[in-house]
Design a protein that fits this description.
With 344 residues, the protein is mainly beta. The chain has 1 helix and 27 strands. Strands 10, 11, 12, 14, 15 and 18 form a 6-stranded mixed sheet that branches. It has a 5-stranded antiparallel sheet with strand order 2-1-4-7-6, with no helix packed on it. Strand 23 and strand 24 form a beta hairpin. The protein is globular, with a radius of gyration of 25 Å. The relative contact order is 0.12.
Length: 344
């Protein structure tokens, strides 16, 4: 028979929770959100952060929600923090706050967020990349036959050194570049058999921003096509009786499930029918796709030629997609679907 003291000790151990059972998968990362959207990085990364902007930072890490706010501070480049919040999401602690970086901060300068005595998260200052409006097309390539040169003009604040990512089959010349504007002269190659193209900006300098957008979140990216050569080529003609678009995926109120280890953001492809509800084709197969939802500031719209568009969205989250025919710039009915993204 066990001594009384040993029996009591064994009884107490039996009541304690098991510490050596299967460990739950923990998602730890850093997300940086601003006017252009939200990006997620590993905890050990040094994410870019735009100067002249207040970015919303969320750090997910075990037990970080237990650190008192008076032990959270920032240093470097005159940055300041505000709106601290914390909590627990799916069993993982998080710290959320706004970080404001002065417009005069040095490109490439380091900003350190100190959380408690041991956690120090670093960020790298990059250009603001703020567009003053949509990219100007002169003349609009939709009015041209392939092979005719046209100019895409980008204007904004603290742009950095953006260049074009493609488009395929084109020669591109850069002119009139400053930190607030740049012009790209595009001309399609004579031997090109592709009919639809995409205009995308990408960085060419170390401290360029991850993307370019307007203050409302509208991207600089757009799709374009040329008028086919005669005799099939015709100018864009709007359809006054055009019907509603038919979104085929995702379904309205659908909950899209991902594996527990799925990284965030995760891709979702939106698809739709080529014809509208009255079985009519859309002029030039050109659509306006808009999306909004979790950590997206405002509504972001993109012109798409075709019947699909792939986005990456933060997990978990709730989102709305709205689709309407471009209809040569004339009014057209739209349709929206709302859906959720969850981990299993």
């Amino acid at each position: 028979m066990l001594p009384v003291r040993s029996a009591l000790l064994l009884g107490a151990l039996a009541l304690m929770p098991p510490f050596f059972g299967p460990r739950r998968h923990v998602v730890e990362n850093i997300s940086v959100g601003d006017f252009a959207g939200n990006l997620t990085y590993n905890l050990t990364a040094t994410p870019p952060i735009r100067r002249g902007v207040t970015s919303h930072i969320v750090i997910k890490k075990n037990f970080i929600d237990l650190v008192p706010f008076n032990m959270v501070n920032v240093s470097g480049q005159g940055a300041s923090i505000s709106n601290l919040a914390n909590g627990n999401s799916g069993g993982t602690g998080f710290l959320a706050l706004d970080v404001t970086v002065p417009g005069a901060a040095a490109l490439g300068g380091q900003i350190t967020l100190n959380v408690g005595l041991t956690d120090h998260f670093t960020f790298r200052v990059v250009n603001r990349g703020l567009l003053s409006g949509a990219v100007t097309k002169t003349p609009d390539p939709a009015t041209l036959q392939g092979g005719t040169a046209w100019v895409a003009a980008v204007a904004g604040t603290d742009l950095g050194v953006p260049v074009l990512d493609g488009p395929i089959c084109h020669s591109v010349a850069v002119s009139n570049r400053t930190n607030t504007s740049v012009q790209f002269t595009l001309q399609r190659n004579a031997t090109c058999s592709t009919t639809s193209f995409n205009f995308r900006l990408k960085g060419s300098a170390t401290n360029d921003p991850p993307s370019w957008a307007t203050a409302s979140g509208s991207s600089s990216n757009f799709g374009f096509a040329y008028v086919p050569p005669p005799p099939s080529g015709v100018a864009c003609t709007s359809d006054p009786t055009i019907g509603f678009p038919e979104i085929t995926s995702p379904q309205n109120q659908q909950v899209i499930q991902f594996a527990a280890g799925q990284a965030s953001p995760a891709p979702v492809t939106v698809t739709w029918s080529a014809n509208t509800s009255n079985n009519e084709p859309v002029p030039n197969n050109e659509w306006i796709v808009s999306h909004s939802g979790t950590l997206i500031k405002g509504t972001v719209s993109t012109t798409v030629i075709g019947t699909s568009k792939t986005y990456t969205f933060v997990l978990p989250g709730d989102y709305t997609i709205t689709l309407r025919p471009a209809n040569c710039g004339q009014s057209a009915p739209s349709k929206s679907v709302s859906f959720s993204m969850r981990r299993q």
